[in-house]
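Have a think about this chain, tokens included, and walk me through the fold.
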Amino acid sequence: MTDIEEALALLVAPCTDERFFQRALKALALVTQCRWAAFCRPSHKGKIIEIVAFCDLQHNLPGFEFDLQGSPCESIYQLKYPNCHILYPDGLQRTFPNSPWIKKLGANSYQAEIILNEDKTPIGHILVMDTLSQTETMKSREFFRLLAHRIAVEYNRLLISREMEVHKQMIAHTEQLMSFVDLNYQYRVISKGYKKVFNRTASSLIGTSVAELHGKDVFVDHLKPLIDRALKGETLTAQTKIHPPHLCEPIYLNIHHNPHYDDQGEIVGVIISAHKITDLHHAKER
């Protein structure tokens, strides 16, 4: 198997978490025949670069941070699209004498590609370094470009996944009535409020359809029309009622529906939040 074939095999291997970046960097190191490869991003601390993932073909090294100023990475963020690539073929330590991590690694050459969002703003960059000189080839340049695009997609997916997990935890721990309903009208996340109102455990509620929980008539007449509007992209507020079977009277609710999008911009479900207005409803009836 050639280096490019092995690199492509590493990239297409299924991986949906942070391990993808290690595989991607190993593939980049193989294609460029360099010892070190890294995925870096600007830190929130100012002119600091954070190494998200670092690949050393000879040793395992943890990620670290370094000053952007005075490092070869400073040049990559000065480029303007469509110029996204930079190469220092040799003499790296002479060119950047005030970059301690370059000296510590003993790197002599550097090559990098900026990673851009859809709006062409930088997410970060990928780089390779070696103790020997580097030469740029069409194969390595194209692989850099393809990998930068793929990492942008995977990194955004990772951020959205983390954000969704935070939302799930927020929903699960709130005392209010909050839930996430998928395209099949099934509850995927429910709050403590649902457990109290329906007098059921979380495990018995998750995976249950809206029709099963509320009854077919309530689902068809009151809940499904609202969910369907949200699934078409509408954010809406409405008043409706539910009637848990163990209660004598229905509960009147003010409900907010918000469509939830995946990293491809597709709607994958609806986040529903509600608060009780039963007392207000009865007061209006008097």
Summary: The CA atoms of residues 228 and 284 lie 29 Å apart. Residues 174-285 form a domain with the Beta-Lactamase fold (CATH 3.30.450.20). The radius of gyration is 26 Å. The mean pLDDT is 85.
